[in-house]
Amino acid sequence: MPTILEHLAALFDKDMRAVLNNPRAISMIANPSARVQMAAVRRDRSVICFIERPTEKVQLTAVRNAPHNIHFITSPSERVQLTVIGNRPSYVGFIPNPTEKVQLKAVEKRPECIFLLQKPCRKGATDGRPERSPVSLGNQGADRKSTAGRRAEKSGMHPSYSGTDGEGAAYGRPEESGYLPADQAA
Q1: Most exposed among 13, 21, 121, 181, judged by the fewest C-beta atoms under 10 Å?
Q2: How far apart are CA 56 and CA 82, in angstroms?
Q3: Can you tell which superkingdom this protein's organism belongs to (predicted)?
């Protein structure tokens, strides 16, 4: 719903008039003003993809209730990044060059987000705990003894694919279960 100020601006500004009629008209405007950008994004958040250099306020409006719009912002500000991570920490993988603060917040909320980062920061936890590398996060509990590891050694496959006995079970070796592609079958 357009505000009263937007209606008044539309009387004198053809760009505002076009955006109020159809928010996608912003794609045809060379350098839309901040007010025109905001009017378009308030009506349809997905039009952020048509704005080359949206202001921070417009970016925040676009991602506040629709965090997936971070995909369309080429250089989001740290405040915008933190807003997105506050709602969806897993979207850290879609943010180009997330700041150190954003990375730490995402990993703090969901530790598995560290695997989504292309260049994770090397800073440890801020509460005095020792720093953990991505490798140590993935191998938690690897030193435990379990029967799954022995089944995997027996069949030569990962434990989750080795079925019940590890030898030719439904998810075991394909040559023993009869599930080979036609060109590999004997």
Answers
A1: 181
A2: 12
A3: Bacteria
pLDDT in tens, 122-143: 765 444 444 444 444 444 444 4
pTM of model > 0.70: no
Indicate the residue type of 146: S
**Among the listed residues 106, 98, 45, 93, the one whose alpha carbon sits nearest the alpha carbon of residue 59:** 45
Continuous H helices in the chain: 4-12, 14-21, 34-43, 56-64, 78-87, 100-109, 134-138, 147-155, 174-177
Question: What tens digit of pLDDT does each residue of 77-134 get?
Answer: 999 999 999 989 999 988 988 999 999 999 999 999 889 888 888 765 444 444 444 4
What are the residue ranges spanned by the domains of the chain? Answer: 1-53, 147-173
